[in-house]
Amino acid sequence: MTAIARTHGRQILDSRGNPTVEVEVTLESGATGRAAVPSGASTGVHEALELRDGGQEWGGKGVGKAVANVNGELAEAARGLDAANQRALDERLIELDGTPNKGRLGANAILGVSLAVAHAAAAEAGVSLFRFLGGEEAVTLPVPMLNVINGGAHAQNSIDLQEFMLVPAGADTFAEALRVGAEVFHALKALLHERGFSTAVGDEGGFAPDLDSSEEAIEAVLEAAERAGHRDRVAIALDPAATELYADGHYRFEGNDEVGDEMVQYLTRLVERYPIVSIEDGLAEDDWASWRALTEVAGSSVQLVGDDLFVTNSERLRRGIMENVGNAILIKVNQIGTLTETLDTMAMAREAGYACVMSHRSGETEDTTIADLAVATNSGQIKTGAPSRTDRVAKYNQLLRIEEELGDRAVYPGWDAFPRFQR
């Protein structure tokens, strides 16, 4: 009864008004599952390929070809397979594509099928997706990283570093953490308004003011936390998205022009000056020497997360482990293109002592799969934007539902999610 009977894809819009793929899978039992695929703006060159149509319609970003692949080759390959055997399904889809980066059929098409099948299998089993994937051991709610100030590719403003995240690690429950985050977010809005800055929001729901520097952005978040009465309960996480700043061996941002060693020194000074628990993509995706240097000098005191560096790819991660580069990995399902490969990469990270941070993309939908995945894998951390915009808040609301379902069994790791951070 868990055999796949029908797979249907369609084009929908993401949070930026760009097309993306949505897939519905129906099993022989009649159980159904649906998933929508996110899309990034700040994308690494090593990511699996997102198939787009080109041409003039939708600015070249249509996904008609990917949808046709869902309804054609992928649907035929999936028909009759057991939805409860995710690995066999995903291996069949990967084999069918036959390219290293899923470029023939499109990672967006393949991922849509992969995730929709997981949802259908959970529906057939009569359990939540997090429980279906994680079993009885899935009890840990993630500490949220709320991107409250957007810069870089996520906003049209003067700040070149991409994300300044509020981390409510001092809460006792996820629900309380979300309240702390929302209260600081609203205090930040009032603070920025008082200073005459715009309080319009960027792609990920955070504010996009024309501040003079990254330091000013960090200090604004901390002052807002003080005003909200939560200064001792929050920390800061950064995503400079340094690949976007890197060209010809130099990092250029906010008037700075620095080589790798100087960028390492800059980030180290920030860690010494501010309560920073995590830095994602502090260096460019192929600047391995500088990554090693940063890990050596700061890896014992702050989480160093590879996003463009690792792209949820086990081969990239394996190199990082062997070369002692970073100590955490960002997990984005659409960077690799199937649920099985995502879970395998997370297993490799855990075995090596690397933390896993579940993540959205800047182009999102109301799909909440990553919230369930964060709990299913007990990842302990999630970044899915500010407490603003439905495409972001949908994930937080799903986590509230999961926490309620777990009841007394729910665990919120708080500061323990960042063991390197010395308060």
Which strands sit side by side, in order, in the main sheet? 4-5-6-10-11-12-13-14
Helix share of residues?
25-40%
State the order of secondary-structure elements, H for helix, E for strand.
Answer: EEEHHHHEEHHEEEEHEHEHEHHEHEH
Strand proportion? 15-25%
Gyration radius, in Å = 21 Å
Distance between the termini: 53 Å
Got a strand count?
A: 14
For the residues shown, what is the average pLDDT? 95
Main sheet specs = 8 strands, mixed, barrel
List unreliable stretches of 5+ residues.
none
Oligomer: single chain
Structural class label: alpha/beta
The dominant shape is globular
Give me the number of helical elements: 13
Descriptive tags:
single chain; 423 residues; alpha/beta; eight-stranded mixed beta barrel; three-stranded antiparallel beta sheet; 13 helices; 14 strands
Outline the secondary-structure elements:
Blueprint: E1 4-13, E2 19-27, E3 32-36, H1 64-78, H2 86-97, H3 107-125, H4 129-134, E4 143-150, E5 163-167, H5 174-194, H6 214-227, E6 235-239, E7 246-247, E8 250-253, E9 256-258, H7 260-273, E10 276-280, H8 288-298, E11 303-306, H9 314-322, E12 328-331, H10 333-336, H11 339-351, E13 355-359, H12 369-376, E14 381-383, H13 390-406
Parallel strand pairs: 4-14, 6-10, 10-11, 11-12, 12-13, 13-14
Antiparallel strand pairs: 1-2, 2-3, 4-5, 5-6, 7-8, 8-9
Helix pairs in contact: 1-2, 1-3, 2-3, 5-6, 7-8, 9-11, 12-13
